[in-house]
Amino acid sequence: MGYGMDYKCPNCGYDVSYFLGFGKLYLDFKMTCEILSELDNLINKEDLDKILSSESFIHESDEDNYENPEYLFEHVLSVRLYECSDCEKYYPLNFFRIRSKDGEIFVPRYSCEECGRELHLKKDDVFKCPECGETMDFIGEILWD
Ligand SMILES: [Zn+2]
Ligand SMILES: [Zn+2]
Questions:
Q1: DSSP label of 82
Q2: What residue ranges do the domains of the chain occupy?
Q3: Mean pLDDT highest for which of 6-10, 25-29, 46-50?
Q4: Ligand of minimum distance to the alpha carbon of 136
Q5: How much distance in Å is there from the Cα of 7 to the middle of ligand 2?
Q6: What is the residue-averaged pLDDT of the chain?
Q7: pLDDT exceeds cutoff 90 at 100
């Protein structure tokens, strides 16, 4: 299921919708799934280590208990909102986690198109207008299957 969030600037009238969850980006999501399951089948441990230690991934510490040593990839995917705290730009991007056989967790690393800095998952609901910098008003949420 996906959802969209609509925001409008009270100052200059700029409006924007962010589509998250699955919904519209489903194809992209499906492709990511396929890539992951392909990796699952084809890649040996050393190749995987190389990929996961590259710039494309962030190593997250794992707080869950690791239960199944045979389960290499955790296909937890959805579109989440990332932000660049310097440019105050927002990016809806695929979020997923890969769990290695050693129980380590990796998540994708994204960088800002403008400044190249690392993006972070957006934690709050405050959006600044890209045109004038005013805090935007939340207009509504759209849900779909
Ligand atoms: Zn504005
Ligand atoms: Zn930036």
A1: E
A2: 2-144
A3: 6-10
A4: 1
A5: 20
A6: 74
A7: no
